[in-house]
Amino acid sequence: MAAHDLVIIGSGPGGYVAAIRASQLGADVAVVEARELGGVCLNRGCIPTKAILESARVLGHLKSASRLGLKLGDVVVDYPAVVARKDAVTVRLRKGVAGLFKNANVEVIRGRGRLIDVNTVEVTGEDGTSRVAGTTVMIATGSEPASVGVFPMDHPRVITSDEALALTELPESVLIVGGGYIGCEFASMWAEFGSKVTLVEMLPTLLPVADADVSKEMLRALKRRRAKVHVATKIEKLHATDDKVTAELSDGKTVEAALALVAVGRKLNSDLDGLAELGVETDGAAIAVDAFGRTNVEGIRAIGDVTGKWLLAHVASEQGVCAVEHLLGAEAQPLDEHAVPSCVFTMPEIASVGLTEAAARETLDDVTVGRFDLAALGKAQASGDTTGFVKIVGDAGGTVVGVHMVGHEVTSMIAEAALAVRKRMNVDDVIHTIHAHPTMPEAFHEAALDLLGRAIHKL
Fold first, then answer.
1. Is residue 456 part of a domain?
2. What integer is the mean pLDDT of 157-166?
3. Long-range residue pairs from 43-46, CB within 8 A, at least 24 positions apart, any chain
4. Is the residue at 342 inside a domain?
5. Catalytic site residues?
6. For 184-201, what is the mean pLDDT?
């Protein structure tokens, strides 16, 4: 059994990017995958969700076409066709990952892996059991939807995001449990399509880790789409029958719906067979690693969700690149955890990086804030989508420590903000960078000006 330089368990955004980068550096790489190439993100997360959300976004534009001088007939949602398009997108990208592996000479081994020792992975698949050896083994097994034991999770009317993405018919009504990014994305999407949506969050705000202004805007956006939102509310009991689900809320109200989507977070897939026997240390449910993905056991590394640092695809990819570059002697740059962008693909979109205003006020002596509402932006007015704002949080000297955006195109605009936070730029750096007109990023420029009390177009 010839040994590979690197065996990676998992082909998600962490695993496949790490494999390709390692191959670029001359390593002999094998990837073990029990399910579809591309992992959760490509098949049951980021990509399929955004494909359906794009259909919902276009539907919203069609509904408001008359405001742009366009007269249309009735717009009909063909949800099975929406789902078919989603499936086509994921299949195409999955084939793309397979092509990347082929071009990089990365061996793909199908089946579920378990560690026999620090250099050997046993793989059980449809064709039986085999073993693959690696000088280094990297764990990139990701995460899966968390379940709640008090809910009837085995009932077909109580689903997670995995089953929600597999639905071929639009639910007439849905109860969404959890107001984090998953719950808000599905609520935004289904409400736009016409489902009767009720969202219940036990904490005082939606998107609890977001900046307070962002959370407030998300609540307003869902209510505009006629979603019913209950915050600071618990579900005391959830019953499921053949034709509906019924929830008893802590505020005394009762909610009935065709489906219940449980979106209360994700469970780390860090319980890989063999890890505990080898003495790999964990930090709670996460595999404990250093800045380069090294565990306490020589020859075993871990990246992505299983490390519990940030459950984001782009973080997993960066961790993978850093880990293999360090492993193979290239110049490795650890992840800058102060400048991790986060995007929520609701309608309107949300994007953030760095400290929230509240966190900044807790940790810094003096905080300055600049804000610019998109309603005052020429490009937003021209596009007919003026909801949202750009908010910059700075320290006493004007260094950009956090940026929070709500609105059209902000998930693309956040890249400039992430660079500003990572490089510890001063707002002067933003102000003296010419922003093209008319564009959405001008709002970032105006927010920087506002932080100094110099916004040009703010009323």
1. no
2. 96
3. 43/90, 43/94, 44/161, 44/162, 44/165, 45/161, 45/313, 46/313
4. no
5. 437
6. 97
